Each structure stands twice: as structure tokens, then as C-alpha cells.
Amino acid sequence: MRHLLIILLCLLSPALLAHDGMHMDMPKGPELGASAAFDSHGRLWLVDAADGHVRLRHSDDDSRTLSAPVEVNAKAERIYAEGENRPKIAFGPHDEIYISWSQPRAAPWTGFVRFARSLDRGEHFSTPLTVHHDRAEITHRFDALAVDGHGRIVVAWIDKRDVIAATARKKPYLGAAVYYSWSDNGGVSFVPERKVVDQSCECCRIALARTPDGEVAAFFRSIYGDNIRDHAWGVLHTDGQPSHVERATFSDWQIAGCPHHGPGLAIGNDGIRHAVWYEARDKPTIWYGQLDPGHPPRHALAIATAGASHADVAVHDHTVWVAWNQVSADGYALMLRRSTDNGAHFDTAREIARSSGAVASPQLLLKQGRVFVAWNTAEGFRLVGMPR
Prior knowledge:
By secondary structure, the protein is mostly beta strands. The chain is built from three helices and 27 strands. The radius of gyration is 19 Å and the shape is globular.
């Protein structure tokens, strides 16, 4: 019971309760769920949601100043914009800007995955489209967005169509499923979606990363046996091959519900799969490890324990960084640990920023080998840079 209370205190947010409850009117003003990324020219782009619009801003001075926002969707709609389910941004091979988000529908816990693109550096956006061909008003949400080495746009999400079908047949079905689709025409349209795996966790974000051979890999919380909420790994093929999914963590955390706490993934040029994930079987813990699908992760290390949440990971050459939120009685600290030997050892945790108000999940970004942490807070957006 104590562990569940810690999970609730650390993970639940007003935005989560608003979106996953009764779907009230669109909130006024910006929400905390935001994503940031650097393009190939080093320009920072920030996407969030406010007043029923996905907004895009940019900065050429590492966030000291931000441009006026551009509305991605001209027609207002409801938008999920909390930590696990926030708007996403990715870039095409010529810095085309791709944006995805999840749109709440009328019934609780339902959604459509939406997409729009800009071909003129964010000045104008296409009319948003719904990625999946299935239009049932069920869960299609917690979208994840990436671009593969061939320029194909890959979108994955959590989907409950198989839960509905199983319930109609009076068959048991835990959690949800993971589906994905891709576009090979720059986002004009998406192919019919494919299922990755049944019985995934229903509300944890999906981590995507590009492999050295240019494919997109997914790392996500799945369900094994009687509500064992460990993680799975699979490659989201866009050439017609079926995706093969393997168990990738073996914490054996049994919990009859979703902890709203997805993992992080970064793949080095050497192919090493650096990952972070959360579990609370014995005590709340953020783990780092190098994935060896089908076997326990190598170099597993407890990065942080009680009060730690929502970690991310990045790698450049042989340097690995892990960032996370640390809650205390006087607010949140943004924490960081670094490894200079490709994840074999990490230095001591250090605080790099602090907020007295609510915060979103941190996001590690790389720019010419230098690492930054994007951190959206109730006090404003921050980009915290680390020395080279």
C-alpha cells in the first residue's frame, strides 16, 4: 500500500486527472505536457498545447528567447498534454517538421492519434489527419513519433480495439495493445495500422529510437502472466516484415493497474541499447540497463529510488546521461547522472535545476555532442545545458 501511495503522489498530475476523467472543456492556457527537439541546424523547437491548439515555437539561442507560437491545428480541438501523453515533434531528412498528438474523444479514456506537417520551417501546417484507419471511439492514444533512416514517418500508440473484441467474446484481456503505422510519402497518408503485441500496459508512454541500420525500435511496458508489468522490445518494420517482440526487463513487478510511467531508450552508434525504466516491486526505483532482448539487461543499476520519477536517457559516443524528476516536500529537483564509459559506471547524482511548482517529464536532447535537458514547469519552460 505504501508503494502505491508513493506512485500516486509522484505520478498523478492535475492534467492527468482532467484528461483521463470526464473530459471537461478544453483547459485555458498552456499545459505542462511539451516536447522539444533540435533540428539539423541547431535550432530548438518546442511543441505544447494551449486553448485547444497544438503550438510550435522555436529558439535560435537555446531557449533564452522563444518565437511567437504558431498554431499547428487551425481548428481548435481537445488535446492530451500531460507527461506520458504529450504532443511530439520529429524532423524529416530536409528538416520537414512532423507533429503528432492524441485527441480525446467523447467517452473517457478514448482518443484518436493526430498528425500534421510543415514543409516551410513551421510557417504553415497541413490540415491534421487521423493516423489510424480504425475510427471506433476507443483508446488510440499515447502516440510516439519517429523518422526512420529512409525518411519514413513511424507512429506507434496504445490501442484498445482488441480489448473490446475480447470483451464481446467474454474472453479475458489485460491492458491494451500496441499498434503502429507509417507514411512513406512524407505524411500525406499513412498505411493501414499493424499490431505489434497484445496486452501492453494501457497508460505508459512508448519509447522509440532509431537503430544504427535506420529502423525504428520500440521499448514499452507490457504485461506478462498475472499483471507482471515488465517491458518489451521490438523493431517496427516498414518493409512488410512482421515485428518480433521480446521481453526486455525482468523486474517481476506485479501491479493490477498502470503506473503511468513509461521508459526511455537511446541507441548508440555501436548498437548498444541504453534504457531507463521504473518499477516498485520492493521500493520505487529508476533502473538503467543495456537491453539484451530475451535476457535480463546488462549493467543494470538502480539510478534513483524513493521520490524519483519519469527518467530519460541519451548517449553520444561513450557518454551516457540519465535525467529524472525528484520530488520532495518543497517541490521538484531535476537530477542528472553521467557515465563516461558507455554505461558501465555512473557518477554521483547531482541536482541541476529546481521548481517549487508542478513539472513535466524531463527530456534529454543532444546538439553537436552537447547534452541539454528540456524541462517544462509551472514557472515556464527551461533548457538546462551541461558543459561539454
